[in-house]
Amino acid sequence: MTNLLEALCPDDDTGRDTLYHRPMRVTAALTPTGEDARPPTVEIVGAVIRDLPNTAPGIDGITARIIKHVWAAASDETAEGFRRCVQEGSFPSTWKDGRLVVLPKRNGKPLTDPKAYRPVTLLLIFGKILEPLMIRCAPQMTKGLSDCQHEFTRGRSTVSALRSIFSVARESSSKYVQNIFLDISVAFDNAWWPMILLKSKRGGCPPNIYRMLVDYFIDRRVGMFMGHTVVWKAATMGCPQGSVLGPTLWNVLMDDLLRLPLPGGVSIVAFGDDVTILVESGARAGLEEKSKAALKLVGEWGERNRLEFSPAKSSTMTIRGKLQRPPTIRFRSNSIRSITSTKVLEVVVDSSLSFAQHAVDIGERAANCFGKMSRVSACSWGIKYRDLKILYKGTFVSTVTYVAACWYERASLHVVRSALLRTQRPALILLTKAYRSTSTDGLAVLAGVLPADLEVIRAARLGALRESAATKEELRSAKLSEAESALAAWQKRWDTSIHGRELYLFTGGEGSLQGNLGRA
C-alpha cells in the first residue's frame, strides 16, 4: 500500500525548483492586501447543505443525510461555525484528512502498476461544505476564467468542447486543419500549490479567503485503508479528485495556458486536463511552422507550472483537407505520432469526421451494457417487458445518444445508420423476446421504440430545444413537435421497408405507427 500511495500522491520536491520557482514559494505565503470577503449568510450555508449529494462519507462516517438533519435542528449554530472559519481565514485541520480509494481504469496495464488505478479522495463532509462556501465568498476567482475551459465550468460541457473542436474543422477558411491532442502526465496529482496560490492572488482573491487557501494546503493527509491496517501520507501537491474546491483550483492553474499569445490561425480547447490545439493553414509547411511555435509556448508554460507533457501519449491528426504525407509535429525534440482516428472525450473521431467508427464503438458499448440483462431475463422467464423497457432506456438509449448533438447529422449516413441498427438488434431481441429471424425493422415496431439512428437525432434535437426554450410550456410544446417529426420519419421508413411485411398488416391495419412513439 505504501508504494501505491507514494506513486498516486507524489511529493513536492524542492530539489526541482529553479531560480524561477524559488521566489514563488516565498511570494505565495504572503497574504494579499484588500478587503476581506463577507462571511456567508445562513441562507447561503443552508443552500450549500441542501445541495449536498448523498455520496460516500469521509473517514468519520458522517453522511450528507446526517448533516441535513443536523441543519434542520440547529441551523443557526451550524452556520455560525462556518461563518467563523471564513471570518478568521482558517480551514480546520481535522477536516483535511482524506481516505484514498483507487478505482481500476481498465486500461490494459497490470494491476501492479499504479497507473492502472484512478485515485479518488473521500473527504469529510464538513470540508465539503466549507469548500463551496469559499468559492461563493470569492467569485473573483472564477469570474474571469477563460471560455476555452469546458470542464468544471457553468454553462460548459463535453458537448460544448467537442463543438468547439469540430466547428474549426467545418468552418475554417483554410485548406487544412491539424489537431494536436496533448497529454499532461498525472495532471491533477502534480498540480503545484504555490503556483495555484499565486494565480488565485492575481485573480483578486480576498485576504481572508487567501489565508483559508494557504491553510487548506497545510498539514493535509491521505490514508489508504485495508481491513484494520491504515497507511498515512502527507499530501504536498495535487488537486484532490473528489473535492469540491479541487476542480476550481485546477481551472485557476490552467487559465493562463488558455490565454497564451498563440500564432494566428491557432486556437486551444481544454476539457479538464485534456488539451487540444487546433492549427489552421493553407499548406503543410504552415501547419508545421505554426505547430512548432505553439508547442514551444505550451512547453514553456509547463516548465513554469511544473507540469510535464508526454509526447509519447500525445497525438496529431489532420481533420480538414487531404495531405499526401502528414505534417511532422515535434514537441521539443520528440515527434508526435500521426493518427487517422482517436477517441476524444469518449467520442471516436476520424480524419473525415464521418463518425462511422464512433457509431460502431458506442453501439457495441450500449448493446453490451443492456445485454447483461440476458443473465436475469430470457424468453420464458425473468424480468418483464415494462421493467426491461426502463432498463433499455437507462442503458442502451442513454449510452448510444451520448453527446448526440455533436454527431447526429451523420446518423443519416448509410454506414453510420447501419452500424447503429446492427448494434440495436440484439438489445431489441432481448427486449421483445422475439425470434432471431425477426427483421430489424420489425423489432423496433414490436418493442415500440425508435430505430437507433432516429433516437440519436431526436436526442440531439431535444438537447437543442432545452437550451433554447425559455419556459416549460415552450419546451413541452417543442417536445411534442419533435415527437411528431420522429414518428413521421419512422412511419415513412416503415411504409417503404421490404422487411416485416406480415407485421405491417397488423399495425393499425395499414402499417400505422401512431402511438408507438408514445409507448417508447
UniProtKB/TrEMBL annotation:
Transmembrane spans: none
Name of the protein described by the UniProt record: Reverse transcriptase domain-containing protein
PROSITE patterns documented for this protein: RT_POL
Highest taxon of the lineage: Eukaryota
Domain Reverse transcriptase: 84-336
Gene Ontology biological process terms in this record: DNA biosynthetic process
PANTHER family: REVERSE TRANSCRIPTASES
Signal peptide from the UniProt entry: none
Taxonomic classification: Eukaryota, Metazoa, Ecdysozoa, Arthropoda, Hexapoda
